[in-house]
Design goal:
CATH topology of the largest domain: TIM Barrel
CATH superfamily of the largest domain: Aldolase class I
Number of strands: 14
Strand order of the largest sheet: 1-2-3-4-5-6-7-8
Helix content: 25-40%
Oligomer: single chain
Number of helices: 16
Length: 516
Amino acid sequence: MPTTDHLVIFDTTLRDGEQSPGATMNKAEKLRIARALEKLRVDVIEAGFAVASQGDFEAVKSIAETIKDSTVCSLARALDKDIDRAAEAIQPAERGRIHTFIATSPIHMKHKLQMQPDEVVAQAVRAVKRARSHVEDVEFSCEDAGRSELDFLCRIIEAAIDAGARTINIPDTVGYAIPEQFGQTIEQLLNRIPNADKAIFSVHCHNDLGLAVANSLAALSHGARQVECTINGLGERAGNAALEEIVMAVRTRQDFFPFDTRIDTSHIVPASRLVSTITGFPVQPNKAIVGANAFAHESGIHQDGVLKHRETYEIMRAQDVGWHTNSLVLGKHSGRNAFRSRLLELGIQFETETELNEAFTRFKAMADLKHEIFDEDLQAIASDTRQKEEDGPYGLVCMQVSSETGVIPRASLTMTVDSKEHKVNAEGSGPVDATFKAIESLVDSGCNLQLYSVNAITSGTDAQGEVTVRLERGGRIVNGVGADTDIIIASAKAYIEALNLISKGAERRHPQGADV
């Protein structure tokens, strides 16, 4: 059992989290999240998969140039081109890591790689050595380790450590593991591999059976000292182990876990909201730590107990994870400097003064509509401003929607297409349906609407509504997000943003795709 009292938090929101259908982020959005992760004091930020696309490469490089207090990592398959591209992307980082991987389960080696075990070991060794020729900090992952044979894992990990890997990651790639079994696997690897003491053992668990956090904690209790996780548990399929749950489980149960993280937990809730806003994936109200109901009590018995002594029903303080940031910070009398300062506190920076002025104008307009302006409102304003600044052929000028009992709803919009204004009208089963049909009467995008989701950004009838629209065309999936105190206008903004993303046609390839 390792004696270190430090648990390394490896955040992969920007890489594995982005693999959620519709969660693709642009460079500016990735940089915002990276700054929030740095403020959270994450040890390692996996910024992306540099070889996947030029956009991913530029995002990783931009994060490497900006982040100073966290290690910046890029994923790479066990291929020379991947490793060299990753090295180029992280070159500006004060501390850079290359994370290379290859599949080790029988089913993956046979059907995906079509390689013999000896070939897999040889390729892994070559990859680690090539990565070490670029950087000292190299991580090696055994993809689908959860379904791999223990003897083969011991063999390839020993070889990878000999080749220079200093972090060994054991992923439960398909969420197949059970906590007791997974913990025992980690312990056996540590006991059986002769040079195991030369590397930190890590885990990366998926949530297909709802066990990602439980499997991660079991692995930690059996000797792992790095955990790979994401904000809000974001990730492909059912997601990954949630960073906030791992960190607070370890922090709350120091009587059980002989280690701790360096995470500044007061920034957990702001980071959660930022990721939710950018990806368009709302956090469920009963989500542990960051859900709206996580520290709410409705039962009379619970309320009475908490009022008498908080710890009767609360094992954590809401303030410790950042819930105190909910308080009102700005109003309609606030000036530009106060506005700018609060944005900086939230990790929001605009690249140009024009963007800041546009956001401030939106803030003032909202302050006339809402008496209370919350941090979530400011984050939505920032996202909406950046979306407006993004190039795209379509724009919303103005709209009017009528909805009356017994009368078919109707929407009239003025839109721009390549800067030329057009007026469109349509009827629908409801005001949102009429709005979307009006837009499509002009655009005729050929897209399929896969998701329409509405989330109140704050409480109250004057709250901004945040709408997520997911469109699919030709196998490409995008998320459009719009926010406004008028939910119909927010819906139109979200639909138009999704159309602009579709129109760009810049498809982000899946990081583990064979044709990268």
